[in-house]
């Protein structure tokens, strides 16, 4: 088989990941003709179109889908090998950091992390995106995401993880509707609740723990963000169970009273996740340390 320039595989990977010749060119700091020329060579080598245009998208052929994982892993390993030979300098790096966070984590972690990065790595940019558990392993593996932050859940051994902070829960209620005494389990079960979740159906972590005790609560409303939930909370007698860190932050903006949860709730520890190939990568290790420092 004829020899192939390794740079062509990097072009293949970029087109596959971005679904566009122009976006691949931008990502690789190359011209569109250079990308198109590289793709033409790959098509000749594999005797396959590899990608076909559909609207604004370049969709992979069956062969392209079959070879992508091998090419992605090989090119990423090569990049990591080259990276390890260089001294990582945060102050000089213009890397864009991509972090996928659970919505309950972003409000209290992101401000602290950005503050640290503005001081120690002023040229870096940061993107915080919605965390999709079904795609997380693939996104971490192909470098689309550098770090993910979420409560503990099962992932393959190719993904490393570490606990960064326990998450204590509390109950928020509008001050004008707050009970005069400590919150009891009976009162908690009698009231209606807001559940913050990105999913349209399903129960919350606290509901799972309640079910172990043989109880259930009435969810009167679901929404995606704690800020929106607190906006509703101001003018209703609903209860909102949420992480204490977020509650303390939002309490400054809303007239809320925070009450102790009236039943035992195992701490929902927050973990950060990264691709195992990056365990010793200088840049990723540095970023993990910045995240740890931002949680205290």
Can you describe what's shown?
With 296 residues, this protein is of the alpha/beta class. The chain folds into three domains: 6-84, Orthogonal Bundle (Arc Repressor Mutant, subunit A); 96-166 and 269-294, 3-Layer(aba) Sandwich (D-Maltodextrin-Binding Protein, domain 2); 169-259, Periplasmic binding protein-like II (D-Maltodextrin-Binding Protein, domain 2), CATH 3.40.190. The chain has helices at residues 6-18, 21-28, 32-46, 62-84, 106-120, 133-141, 185-190, 205-212, 226-233, 244-250, 282-294; strands at residues 51-54, 57-60, 96-101, 125-130, 147-151, 159-165, 169-174, 192-196, 218-223, 239-243, 256-259, 270-275. Strands 4-3-5-12-6 form a five-stranded mixed β-sheet. A five-stranded mixed β-sheet has the order 9-8-10-7-11. A two-stranded antiparallel sheet has the order 1-2. β1 (51-54) and β2 form a beta hairpin. α1 packs across α2 (21-28) and α5 crosses α11. It is elongated. The termini are far apart. The mean pLDDT is 87.
List keywords for this structure.
Arc Repressor Mutant, subunit A; alpha/beta; D-Maltodextrin-Binding Protein, domain 2; elongated; 12 strands; 296 residues; 22% strand; 11 helices; five-stranded mixed beta sheet
């Amino acid at each position: 088989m004829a020899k192939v320039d390794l740079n062509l595989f990097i072009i293949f990977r970029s087109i596959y990941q971005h679904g566009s010749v122009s976006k691949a060119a931008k990502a690789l700091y190359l011209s569109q003709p250079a990308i198109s020329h590289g793709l033409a060579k790959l098509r000749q080598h594999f005797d396959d179109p590899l990608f076909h245009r559909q609207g604004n998208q370049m969709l992979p052929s069956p062969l392209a889908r079959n070879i992508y994982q091998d090419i992605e892993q090989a090119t990423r390993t090569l990049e990591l090998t080259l990276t390890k030979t260089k001294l990582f300098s945060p102050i000089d790096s213009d890397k864009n950091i991509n972090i996928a966070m659970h919505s309950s984590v972003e409000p209290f972690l992101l401000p602290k992390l950005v503050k640290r990065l503005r001081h120690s790595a002023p040229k870096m940019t940061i993107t915080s995106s919605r965390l999709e558990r079904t795609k997380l392993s693939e996104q971490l593996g192909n470098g689309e995401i550098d770090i993910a932050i979420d409560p503990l859940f099962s992932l393959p051994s190719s993904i490393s993880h570490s606990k960064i902070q326990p998450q204590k829960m509390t109950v928020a209620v509008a001050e004008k509707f707050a009970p005069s005494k400590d919150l009891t389990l009976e009162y908690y079960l009698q009231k209606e609740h807001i559940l913050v979740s990105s999913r349209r159906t399903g129960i919350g972590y606290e509901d799972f723990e309640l079910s172990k005790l043989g109880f259930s609560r009435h969810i009167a409303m679901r929404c995606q963000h704690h800020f929106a939930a607190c906006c509703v909370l101001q003018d209703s007698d609903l209860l909102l169970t949420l992480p204490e860190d977020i509650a303390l932050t939002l309490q400054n903006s809303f007239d809320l009273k925070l009450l102790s949860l009236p039943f035992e709730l195992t701490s929902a520890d927050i973990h950060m996740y990264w691709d195992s190939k990056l365990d010793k990568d200088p840049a990723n290790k540095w970023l993990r340390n910045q995240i740890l420092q931002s949680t205290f």
